UniProtKB/TrEMBL annotation, chains A, B:
Key words, A-Z: Glycoprotein, Golgi apparatus, Manganese, Membrane, Metal-binding, Signal-anchor, Transferase, Transmembrane, Transmembrane helix
Name of this chain's protein: Galactosylgalactosylxylosylprotein 3-beta-glucuronosyltransferase
Binding locations of Mn(2+): 133
TM helices/strands, residue ranges: none
Cofactor: Mn(2+)
Organism this protein belongs to: Caenorhabditis latens
Reaction catalysis annotation: 3-O-(beta-D-galactosyl-(1->3)-beta-D-galactosyl-(1->4)-beta-D-xylosyl)-L-seryl-[protein] + UDP-alpha-D-glucuronate = 3-O-(beta-D-GlcA-(1->3)-beta-D-Gal-(1->3)-beta-D-Gal-(1->4)-beta-D-Xyl)-L-seryl-[protein] + UDP + H(+)
Lineage: Eukaryota, Metazoa, Ecdysozoa, Nematoda, Chromadorea
Membrane topology: Single-pass type II membrane protein
Active site (record annotation): 220
Record-linked CDD domains: GlcAT-I
SUPFAM superfamilies, per the entry: Nucleotide-diphospho-sugar transferases
One annotated GO molecular function: galactosylgalactosylxylosylprotein 3-beta-glucuronosyltransferase activity
Amino acid sequence: KPIALTESENDEIDEQEPRTSTEGSSTLKTIIVVTPTYKRLTRIADFTRLANTLSHLLNLYWIVIEDGQETVPVVHKILERTHLNFTYMAHPSPPNYPNRGWYQRTMALKYIRENYTSFMRSQNGVVYFGDDDNAYDLRLFEEYIRNVKKIGMWGVGHVAGSLVESPRVSNQKVVGFDVEWSPDRYFAIDMAGFAVDLQLILESDAVFRSSCPSGTGALESCLLADLGLKREDVEPFGFEKKNDREVLVWHTKTLIPDIYEFRPSAWNWLFPKPPKTNGYFVEY
Amino acid sequence: KPIALTESENDEIDEQEPRTSTEGSSTLKTIIVVTPTYKRLTRIADFTRLANTLSHLLNLYWIVIEDGQETVPVVHKILERTHLNFTYMAHPSPPNYPNRGWYQRTMALKYIRENYTSFMRSQNGVVYFGDDDNAYDLRLFEEYIRNVKKIGMWGVGHVAGSLVESPRVSNQKVVGFDVEWSPDRYFAIDMAGFAVDLQLILESDAVFRSSCPSGTGALESCLLADLGLKREDVEPFGFEKKNDREVLVWHTKTLIPDIYEFRPSAWNWLFPKPPKTNGYFVEY
């Protein structure tokens, strides 16, 4: 059961900024973006950038899961300002649960299965796991994710030691994966590199397991295998050109800022006091 | 003289995404955003996020200056996809010129003075220096920058060792600056923390000097002083509340990704070869 659950159905259209609307676009496949998030110094900045990106898109439903005891008002307000339809809920990770975000994505999959009829008119949807610190080209959503029929895959920039991790494609079929790290995974792909048809999610009870026979780094591969997918099912996107292909998503990380007052010092240890925020709201 | 100069006047409106238009909004003050940029591993990701943010805004003119011998096609394409009006030009920094971006911003100020009549209908504008790696809340532009009459200032998150750098405001007047680093500057403010009315830029030939009596870290302060501004001229934004004020811009930095092939090693030194890009375009 979620600790806190907020649902929003923003049906009104902002006259000044006609950015999003679910009206008049019922033929478009709905993109369900699943974003785990957690309190940290750079979270509001990261989340704001992702909101600025997603709020360009039509027919997008955003599921945001706080790794914490409760939802955070400032995050809720960012979601409201997007004019997107969304669910924001809190599911703290169980003690000693491995890998940040896994439990939250699992809760999102369960939420989708139990509630999709409340936020969708049909099963014409696709699920994408979009973390809040990555960088996204809008074409990833408009040209790739929206057109996934069963399971789509594409290259991801700057992930796991590679300039680009990508499926290896031959005759429009995925025949392997060009990655530096753990290339022998059956689906050697990062969370940001695939999207799955909603129907497939609904027909299965697969979730991110707390462990996976191929190791904790292979949970993506385990999920896709649990969904009954094979390499030959994969639709590769963006491989039309042999060279100068385009990266449309990057596994960016925001540097933790060097705040002077947070530097370890004997002075801070002897005379601890809250850091200066000049009256501003700051997460830390 | 610019080495390469590209001007675009995207007057057509994309029917599917009515995100920007210069028509029917002539009473809105035009925001001129000046962005120096340069080739680096994370540039396309950073620039894509900034484009996603700025493309929400009406009446915005984007001046982008490449620190390099020529403009970069993939950056040009990102600018075109925003449907914003823009100028993209290349001005490589002179040898040994201090502080990245200073020369490019100076070239932008000169460009604005010589060309504003070609991209604006009146002098009803405001100039903002928006770097491509920062994170921006849309309200910074809509509620703060657009409403600047002469010189506006506001808090900036995660800059120069502070959680928030901000003007110190008393009776709606700026009486000092709450910053950790170099607080005795006359205007102790980061580039992201102010915007200046276009008229003021046009009436002066002030640029970012290659040196400044108060030190290289005080170039912002020198520019504002050169524009003839005093602390009492400053309009502070966002100080209505005593507490829980909102940060609308963060001085974020993107972590340089750890690409295995770029790690120093005897093997790479003995047998150098280009890193694997899997056929993708990658800046490095």
